[in-house]
């Protein structure tokens, strides 16, 4: 029986592929790289969507509000000073905080523009 076996000169292709595969069944090469990086990209996308994007939307709304400030608007500055706008220029606004007391503030320090309508009597 020993004589019927011939020695192999080169191993068959299937045997070569089996030997080249990792022993513990883990993916190798590009697949391993994808399995390692895709979760981090997904986490980064989630962080962007829930943290940075709402902040950018809020900043855009604030810029639009500040750009729309006009004479007669009631505003609150970042320092907490509340007053009525008497004059507006490109970079700053003049705010009357008391009768006859006017201060110039940089428009970007205006934190909030208050509604000017009278409250409803309920």
Supply the number of helical segments.
2
User: What is the name of the CATH class of the largest domain?
Assistant: Mainly Beta
- Per the CATH scheme, the topology name of the largest domain is SH3 type barrels
Helicity level: 25-40%
**Mean pLDDT across all amino acids:** 82
The biggest beta sheet reads: 5 strands, antiparallel
Name the helix and strand elements from N-terminus to C-terminus, one letter apiece. HHEEEEE
The rounded distance between the terminal residues' Cα atoms is 107 Å
Q: Could you say which structural class the secondary elements and strand pairing correspond to?
A: alpha+beta
**What's the overall geometry?**
rod-shaped
Name the CATH architecture of the largest domain: Roll
Q: In percent, how much strand structure appears in the residues?
A: 15-25%
- Gyration radius, to the nearest Å? 35 Å
- The tally of domains stands at 2
Strand order of the largest sheet: 4-3-2-1-5
Q: How many distinct beta strands?
A: 5
Pick out the low-confidence regions. none
Structure description:
The chain has helices at residues 13-20, 30-67; strands spanning 74-77, 82-88, 92-98, 101-106, 110-114. The chain is an alpha+beta fold and 122 residues long. Strands 4-3-2-1-5 form a five-stranded antiparallel sheet, covered by helices on one side.
């Amino acid at each position: 029986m020993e004589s019927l076996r011939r020695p192999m000169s080169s191993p068959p292709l299937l045997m070569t592929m089996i030997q080249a595969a990792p022993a513990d069944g883990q993916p190798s090469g590009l697949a391993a790289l994808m399995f390692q990086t895709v979760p981090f990209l997904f986490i980064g996308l989630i962080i962007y969507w829930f943290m940075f994007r709402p902040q950018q939307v809020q900043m855009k709304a604030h810029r639009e509000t500040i750009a729309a400030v006009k004479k007669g608007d009631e505003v609150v500055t970042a320092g907490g000073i509340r007053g009525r706008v008497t004059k507006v220029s490109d970079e700053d606004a003049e705010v009357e905080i008391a009768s006859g007391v006017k201060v110039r503030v940089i428009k970007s320090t205006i934190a909030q523009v208050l509604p000017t309508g009278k409250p409803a009597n309920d």
